[in-house]
Structure formats: C-alpha cells, structure tokens
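Hello,

Our lab assistant flagged a job as stuck in the queue for most of the afternoon. It eventually completed. Since we weren't sure the result was trustworthy after the delay, we are filing this so someone can double-check. Below is the sequence as submitted and the structure that was eventually returned. Let us know if re-running is recommended.
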Amino acid sequence: MIMKYDELPYHSSGGGSSVKGDGKSTVTHSEDKAVITHAAPNTVSRVTVPIENPPSRTAQLMRIKAETSGTNGGTITKLEIAYGSATVFAAPVPNGDVVFEICLDADELPDSPPDAITVTLQLELPNPDSSVDVHSVTLGFGESTLEDVG
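-- returned structure --
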C-alpha cells in the first residue's frame, strides 16, 4: 500500500542530532545528520532515535520514513519502534542504504503511543570505511484507515 503524504494529520520526527549509539559504533553529529561508523570490522550495531509524541493521544502509527544513506557497504538492516519499553513494530529493511519508507498494514497498526517513542535502527558496517548517515526519521500518525492509491 502507498499513502499520500498529506492524508496523515500528524507527523513526528527525530533528526540526526538526536541519534544515540550502543557503543559498538561511533556516532558523529553534524548540523543535519549523524554519521555512524564502526568501532571494529564486521560490526553489527544499533542506534536509537527518540521521537516526540503526536499531538493526538488516539492517533495510530501508520507510516515510517527514514532519510538515510550508506557508503561502502554500510546499511540499515532492521527497524524497530518502541512505545516506552515495549517493541510495538519491527521490520527488516531490504534497501537500508537509501531513503526508505514503510507503510503499515491494518493488522500491524499498534495502539496509540504512550509518552516515549523510540526508533531503533540495526546497522551492518562490514568494511573499515563503511558508514551510514541518518538525516531524519519521521513517523506518520492518523486516525483513519489506510487507502490504497497505487
């Protein structure tokens, strides 16, 4: 399913400056992105991006968009969304070295978020010069049903 961008009433995002690493990689922040490089060859690491709650307490997560890029084999392999400490959505990312978007099916929609939303990105950094740039992660929330427009 593909959704038109303007059909979702609420959007919350976290920029590259808010990315936090797990110690298995190095995170370098600049004004518009975070650059993640490995601390050791063939490293799999995880970074987190905190996301603000949408203004509506009843809105459901419907779409995820990550503005990323990878170099020399650096890629995002998995994305997870947590509300508080509970993972509410997880999906593999087949082309995680480019900008990607995930639209949730109706049976995948998690309940409305509590006070803390965290996006976790699992990275593969196979080469000494591998890296992944994270510019932003945006979550789209709505209270209507998904519409097939494609």
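-- support follow-up --
The delay was a queue issue, not a problem with the job. The result is valid. The chain has no helices and ten strands. The radius of gyration is 15 Å.
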